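G., the chain you wanted modeled:
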Amino acid sequence: MKGPGIFLAQFAGDKPPFNSLEAMAKWAATLGYVGVQVPTSDPALFDLKLAATSQAYCDEIKGKLATHGIEISELSTHLQGQLLAVHPAYVEQFKAFADPAVRDTPAAWPAWAADQLACAAQASRRLGLKAHATFSGALLWPMLYPWPQRPAGLVEMGFKELARRWRPILDVFAEAGVALCYEIHPGEDLHDGATFERFLDAVGGHKAASILYDPSHFVLQQLDYLAFIDLYHERIKAFHVKDAEFRPDGRSGVYGGYQNWVDRPGRFRSPGDGQIDFTAIFSKFAQYKYQGWAVLEWECALKHPEEGAREGAPFIRRHMIRTTDKAFDDFAASGVDAAGNKRILGL
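Predicted structure as C-alpha cells:
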C-alpha cells in the first residue's frame, strides 16, 4: 500500500495555497502527505486535454510535485463520469458539471464526457499511473425504491445502456494499462456490490472495470464494508479513507428524511470521528496484498476541512501495515521431513 495521499477536490479554490496544483502539493507535503489525487474538471488546476497529448506537460507537472516530495496517486473524473449517464430528473442539478460549450445541451453531455474520459486514460498513461477514479453516472437512480413497481426489463435495459456507453471507454483504459475505478456511491447506478456485479456482467467482465473503495458510503447504506473487501478485493484498485456514522432514531433512518447532512442519521465524519473500523479495513487490504494508494477524502458535517486534512496524514500512516515476509511462528519450524510427516499421520 502507498500513502498517505489526499484528494484535492474538496480543497481547491481561489485563495492560496488552494489556487494551484503546485501550491496545494506543497501544502499537502507540510501535513505529511506523499500523494495527491487530482481532479481534472478545471484546466487552471490541471489541463486534462493537454496532458493527454503532451508528455512534456506531464513531465513538468510530475517534476514540480516531486520537488515537494509529492506524486500523483490518481487523476479523478468524477464530474465528467457523472455526465456520461444522467437521468432527465437530474439535468438541472448536474448542468454545472458540463463544459460551457455543451452545458445547455444535455444530449451532448455523453459524447463530451466520453472524450474527457479518453483524455484521462492517455494522461494517466503519460503520468505513469495505474488507476483512475470516476463515477459511473446513473440512468436508474430515480427507480431505486421499487414503488411504483418497476416495469419488467427496465433495470436490464438501463444496465445494458450504461454498459454500451462505458464499454469503449473501458477499452481505451485497458489499452493504456490503467484500471478504471468506479467509486461505489449512492446516486450512481454502481452504488453497491449487486449493482457492480450487474454492470460487470453487462460489460463482459471487462478487465479494466475496477472499484474505488470508500467505506463511508457503505455505512450509510448499512452494507457490510469488510465483507465487501472479501468479495471484490481483486477489483479494488483505489481507496478513499473517509469515515461515517449511522445513528437512526424514531424519526428517520437510511433515507434521511430530506434533512441536511448535519441532521441526518447517516453522515460523513473526519477519519477517526465516525464508526468505521479502519484497523480492520487496513488489515483486510494487507491480507489481500492491496498495492494501491490510501487517499484521504475529507468530507465531514462538523469539522473544518483544514483540521481534517491536518489529522488525516498521521491517521492513515498509523493504520498502514508493513506486511511481514515471514510467519510469526517460523522460529518453531522443524523443516520438511516426509518420513516424519508419515509417522505423525500413522502412515
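The chain has 13 helices and ten strands.

Shout if anything looks off.
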